[in-house]
Amino acid sequence: MSNKAIFKQIKQAFAEAPRNQHTAELHLQMIKFADELKHITAKEFCEEMGLKQSQGTEFSKMRNLTARIKATGLNTELI
After folding, report:
1. How many domains does the chain have?
2. Within 10 Å of residue 66's Cβ, how many Cβ atoms?
3. Phi, psi (rounded to 5 degrees) for 33
């Protein structure tokens, strides 16, 4: 899947999430696509998503968490 398609999917999921669930949805999407987005920086992620640069820390945390989550057997493709 191309980066363009990934970001489109993340933006759609974020837009469809209830307002009080935006942060949780963003975290889930970051985990879901962590492997595909491992070559981009947190800054690039925020720019593409139209987020504040401070959200870059969350992107980095979720990407680092993904390896541990996968080690438990969770299939991130099912998120």
Report:
1. 1
2. 19
3. -105, 15
Computed on alpha carbons and rounded to an integer, the radius of gyration of the chain in Å comes to: 12
Does residue 66 have a pLDDT over 90? Answer: yes
pLDDT at 78 over 90: no
Task: Say yes or no to pLDDT of 60 above 90.
Answer: yes
Percent of the chain with pLDDT over 90: 87
Pair of tokens at residue 15: 């837009």
Instruction: Determine the structural domain holding residue 12 and report its residue range.
Output: 3-78
Asked if 55 and 10 touch (Cβ cutoff 8 Å), the reply is no
Residues 40 and 60: their CA atoms lie apart, in Å, by 10
